[in-house]
TrEMBL record:
<protein>
    <recommendedName>
        <fullName>FAD-binding FR-type domain-containing protein</fullName>
    </recommendedName>
</protein>
<dbReference type="GO" id="GO:0008218">
    <property type="term" value="P:bioluminescence"/>
</dbReference>
<dbReference type="InterPro" id="IPR039261">
    <property type="entry name" value="FNR_nucleotide-bd"/>
</dbReference>
<keyword id="KW-0455">Luminescence</keyword>
<dbReference type="GO" id="GO:0016491">
    <property type="term" value="F:oxidoreductase activity"/>
</dbReference>
<dbReference type="InterPro" id="IPR050415">
    <property type="entry name" value="MRET"/>
</dbReference>
<dbReference type="InterPro" id="IPR017938">
    <property type="entry name" value="Riboflavin_synthase-like_b-brl"/>
</dbReference>
<dbReference type="InterPro" id="IPR017927">
    <property type="entry name" value="FAD-bd_FR_type"/>
</dbReference>
<comment type="similarity">
    <text>Belongs to the Fre/LuxG FAD/NAD(P) flavoprotein oxidoreductase family.</text>
</comment>
<dbReference type="InterPro" id="IPR001433">
    <property type="entry name" value="OxRdtase_FAD/NAD-bd"/>
</dbReference>
<dbReference type="Pfam" id="PF00175">
    <property type="entry name" value="NAD_binding_1"/>
</dbReference>
<keyword id="KW-0560">Oxidoreductase</keyword>
<feature type="domain" description="FAD-binding FR-type">
    <location>
        <begin position="1"/>
        <end position="99"/>
    </location>
</feature>
Length: 240
């Protein structure tokens, strides 16, 4: 596994438990949009997070890291990635954006910090020149599970991009959709023809239960099972 030295360029807190971290690699890197960016710790653990931007368009590599009280690994990552710290990174993951994806609609169904990988894919698609549409459905349980994402405003100016935000248990002040990600997405994707559904690349990011339930519903709705992608099918924990 090839590793890359990097320096933490910024470390920001976006809400009560999400950290936005940017790394400046000290050598040339080969990381593709949507891949895992692993943060390798002193104890040998390499902790995976989906890269949160298109690394081919930026000199920085970005992550969105959620602080989970029961997760020792992510707590160590947050502690080890304060601004100015030197870290070791690695690239991994079999799901990433390729030129073949330019030919078909792209559907991204994500929960919480799953927006990290989705942002990487969206940036790659909109920069590619593809005329094919890209649809994002981003959801969570309540408002605390989403966080500000300034790129949404810019993406929305592109006619190829469509998005729905949804919550299972929103407050009275919530002005977007209510319901699960897959329920909201199926309502938002009624414009897709059967042929478009069978050709579309779909990436689902969330808990294993959410991913499995979502893919089952999508298959019933005419999306091709072979095109329903999720990192949980491929990832294996590793150490240096």
């Amino acid at each position: 596994m090839q590793t890359y030295p990097a320096v933490v360029a910024f470390h920001r807190t976006l809400n009560h438990d999400v950290h936005h971290i940017g790394f400046k690699p000290l050598t040339e890197v080969d990381i593709k949009p949507g891949q895992y960016l692993e943060v390798c710790l002193d104890n040998g653990w390499c902790v995976p997070y989906s890269v949160g931007n298109d690394p081919t368009q930026s000199q920085l590599l970005e992550l969105y890291v959620q602080h989970l009280p029961e997760g020792d690994a992510n707590i160590r990552v947050i502690e080890a990635t304060q601004e100015g710290a030197e870290v070791t990174l690695a690239a991994n993951g079999k799901i990433f954006y390729t030129p073949e994806w330019d030919k078909v609609p792209l559907v991204l169904l994500v929960a919480g910090c799953g927006i990290s990988q989705a942002r990487s894919f969206i940036e790659a698609r909109l920069a590619s020149g593809s005329a094919q549409p890209v649809y994002l459905c981003w959801g969570g349980g309540d408002e605390r599970e989403l966080f500000p994402l300034e790129q949404l405003t810019q993406w929305s100016k592109d006619k190829r991009f469509m998005a729905d935000l949804t919550l299972d248990r929103p407050s009275d002040e919530w002005t977007f959709a209510k319901g699960t990600v897959v329920d909201t997405a199926l309502k938002g994707l009624t414009w897709m023809t059967p042929k478009e559904r069978s050709r579309a690349k779909v990436v689902v990011t969330g808990s294993p239960n959410m991913v499995d339930a979502t893919r089952a519903r999508l298959a019933e709705a005419g999306f091709a099972a072979d095109n329903l992608l999720a990192d949980q099918d491929y990832y294996q924990v590793r150490t240096l």
